[in-house]
């Protein structure tokens, strides 16, 4: 095999409760990660030398800081690999939207190059490598909808109803680091017990602060709530609501006010990367 094309799906945080702050500045949280069937796509092509290159439909993303490049270099070093690759990233997800696009791209890179370079590293090893790139990366390496604790890396798979979601992104970029550093962030929520995950009230502790700092997020939620109960995902700025069917979701999408972008996607319990990887066997 010399070439591989794989999806890098988005996630929603159906709830996000922040239960404390660790001494290293990271926050302990409890969150319900819902994978979606929509996202970016990456193509990996084997090279004869050890160079790693990135091309992308968004030229602003072609740089050494891209999580795709960082994941590829990390894996090449860890796996003592003498091969390189050319990577093409088809960026489709909004960035800085709390949809985990960068983390998902990194995870797909780890999984894809593990296969292309025939490193045979375990999923546990890839998840651990991924955690050094970002708190969300292990979720996408494992590729299942999950209840997460710790800083987001302690994952417990969950089977949820695979609902249809409308995801709406206002034209603003929310920095995850800015929100977690803010003095007004709610960071003392009472932890919920595993048994109460599906019944406890679902809310996002970052949402009140983000609505205050970025009024456009509050305005977007006010628009969406006219159609269905809605919430913010991650540290924003994207918001989402579940719809009973394609017709009603597409109808709301068609009414989007100027300045907002959106897409409809289905929640999935397992990432489509698993069947895609299996097809390459
Ligand atoms: C909080 C979540 C919920 O999904 O937000 P989103 O990024 O999706 O919006 C994620 O876990 C984020 O994951 P990720 O985006 O990979 O975070 P990282 O790069 O590791 O960290 C970005 C910044 O957020 C802070 N951070 C992140 C995760 C966490 N549990 N506590 C934190 O305090 C870190 O201090 C860091 O400055
Ligand atoms: N492959 C990538 N895709 C998107 N963003 C990336 C990528 N690599 C690095 N980044 C950086 O990470 C930031 C947050 O990206 P993203 O994962 O889309 O947001 P979030 O963590 O809010 O879901 C971007 O603004 C960008 O600077």
Automatic annotation (TrEMBL):
Q: E.C. number, please?
A: 2.7.1.148
Q: What reaction is this protein's catalytic activity?
A: 4-CDP-2-C-methyl-D-erythritol + ATP = 4-CDP-2-C-methyl-D-erythritol 2-phosphate + ADP + H(+)
| The keyword Kinase appears for this protein | yes
Keyword tags: ATP-binding, Isoprene biosynthesis, Kinase, Nucleotide-binding, Transferase
SUPFAM superfamilies, per the entry: GHMP Kinase, C-terminal domain, Ribosomal protein S5 domain 2-like
Q: Where does ATP bind?
A: 94-104
**Pathway note:** Isoprenoid biosynthesis; isopentenyl diphosphate biosynthesis via DXP pathway; isopentenyl diphosphate from 1-deoxy-D-xylulose 5-phosphate: step 3/6
> Which InterPro entries does the UniProt entry name for this protein?
GHMP_kinase_C_dom, GHMP_kinase_C_sf, GHMP_kinase_N_dom, IspE, Ribosomal_Su5_D2-typ_SF, Ribsml_uS5_D2-typ_fold_subgr
**Residues forming the catalytic site:** 11, 136
Extract the Pfam families matched here.
GHMP_kinases_C, GHMP_kinases_N
Is this entry keyworded Kinase? Answer: yes
Ranges of residues in domain GHMP kinase C-terminal:
197-256
Citing just one GO molecular function, the answer is: 4-(cytidine 5'-diphospho)-2-C-methyl-D-erythritol kinase activity
PANTHER family, per database record? 4-DIPHOSPHOCYTIDYL-2-C-METHYL-D-ERYTHRITOL KINASE, CHLOROPLASTIC
Protein's job: Catalyzes the phosphorylation of the position 2 hydroxy group of 4-diphosphocytidyl-2C-methyl-D-erythritol.
**Name of the protein in its database record:** 4-diphosphocytidyl-2-C-methyl-D-erythritol kinase
Per the record, the gene is: ispE
């Amino acid at each position: 095999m010399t070439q591989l094309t794989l999806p890098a799906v988005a996630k929603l945080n159906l709830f996000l409760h922040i239960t404390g702050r660790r001494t290293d500045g990271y926050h302990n949280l409890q969150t319900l990660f819902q994978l979606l069937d929509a996202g970016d796509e990456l193509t990996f092509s084997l090279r004869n030398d050890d160079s790693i290159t990135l091309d992308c439909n968004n030229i602003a993303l072609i740089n050494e800081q891209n999580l795709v490049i960082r994941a590829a270099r990390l894996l090449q070093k860890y796996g003592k690999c003498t091969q390189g690759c050319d990577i093409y990233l088809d960026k489709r997800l909004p960035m800085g939207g709390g949809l985990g696009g960068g983390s998902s791209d990194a995870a797909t890179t780890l999984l894809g190059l593990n296969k292309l370079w025939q490193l045979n590293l375990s999923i546990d090893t890839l998840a651990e490598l991924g955690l050094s790139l970002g708190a969300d990366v292990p979720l996408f390496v494992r590729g299942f909808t999950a209840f997460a604790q710790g800083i987001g890396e302690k994952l417990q798979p969950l089977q949820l109803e695979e609902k249809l979601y409308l995801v709406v992104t206002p034209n603003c970029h929310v920095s995850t680091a800015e929100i977690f550093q803010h003095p007004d962030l709610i960071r003392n929520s009472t932890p919920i017990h595993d048994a109460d995950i599906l019944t406890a009230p679902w809310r996002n502790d970052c949402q009140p602060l983000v609505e205050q700092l970025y009024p456009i997020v509050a305005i977007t939620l006010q628009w969406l709530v006219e159609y269905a109960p809605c919430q913010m995902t991650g540290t924003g700025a994207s918001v989402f609501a579940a719809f009973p069917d394609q017709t009603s979701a597409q109808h709301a999408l068609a009414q989007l006010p100027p300045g907002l972008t959106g897409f409809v996607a289905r929640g999935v319990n397992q990432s489509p990367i698993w069947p895609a990887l299996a097809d390459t066997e």
